[in-house]
Specification:
single chain, 446 residues, mainly alpha, Citrate Synthase, domain 1, Cytochrome p450-Terp, domain 2, 2 domains, 3-stranded antiparallel sheet, 3 strands
Amino acid sequence: MEVFMNLLNKHQEKMIKNSQIPSEFYKEYNVKKGLRDLEGKGVLAGLTNISAIHSFDEDGKQIPGILEYRAYNIKDIVDDLRKEGRFGFEEVTYLLLFGELPTAGDLKEFQDILAHKRILPEFFVRETILTNPSSDVMNSMSRCLLALASYDEKAEDISIENVLEQSLNLIANFPLLAIYTFQAYSHYRKEESLYIHYPDLTLSTAENILRMLRPDCQYTDTEAKVLDIALILHMEHGGGNNSTFTTHVVTSSGTDTYATIAAALSSLKGPKHGGANIKAAKMLENIKQNISDYHDEAEIEDYLYKILNKEVFDHQGLIYGIGHAIYTISDPRFEVFKSYVASLVKEKGMEEEFELYEKVARLAPKVISDHRKTYKTISPNIDFYSGFVYKILGIPQELFTPLFAVARVVGWLTHRIEELINMNKIIRPAYESILESKNYIKLEDR
């Protein structure tokens, strides 16, 4: 074994040496690393009419962030839901998929469609979900997603009519896949009690998530409303985010819906994307454990500097949940979510911990700006609060990213349909080779 490992290390060194690309080459060849320019703006790779993100005005001046779903400001959508006291996940799903706000009649019909599609194939839970569960819920969801293709006689049919049918099935069933795969993991890997609650056809998506997750099926209206808003705010965020761009790329190859969404799911799993809220939650737990006085801003600020200097926490030098690739002055999702978080915190009696979160959210941008001399304004993003909210709701960390997927699958499927409607070429960006030609050497001469 030791001989094998030494041999492997030897070849690994070759692999690393011959795969490295000097950073100065990106400037020399004018390649936008990460497909972003020097100001952090994304390189234009496509067009969409599903959502829009604004953080600069026409003169290039930084403005508070704006997120629009089908040209409607997300703040206006959420304000209306709050005023009416109704759940909105299904309504906003309709808006994204069909491009228009539903009438009361349209919404009722759509809610009924999704409710009656919240059912997995017979024996699927027993034979697929409960069989060989993974310690990673996202991996289990991917496996189950691909397994669903074998139950679909028209899995390969990419007509708009069929893909819409598949999309509605997946939107309805993603909460079941997330909750049931987590429960299988908890039972077989953590030796906890196994309980499977079937969804209630009369309840909203958010209510059913809490109902299926909790042993007693109980939840408060505030809890369900806050989760509903969290899902809405995570549903869609332009065509350029990593998982949605993955959806466009894979769709352009002509492959099926199940393979496409499995690819998007794999992208979201990464800690630089959907897994960021877990990192933010763990970081705040670490801060709590190492701060003696939640009211002492100087102590909090000093600890944030230690995080940036890689002295504490995960030694990566990152303050998670602060800053965004697009938003500068503010992330509108954070601003909307914050008001809902306050009501939940009050109900749960967690005001002191919420105060710490608010202090970190206010102090961290200044600390980062001072430390890195950054060119743009920095603000908290939605990941900063979402992990905290899930914790208050009693949702385990293993489900943080899967719940992100439960919401974002709506955006993925909407973008898939958009790509199919407008698709005429496979997406294939160019890569410039920096190799210099060599004369081939025969084996006996090496």
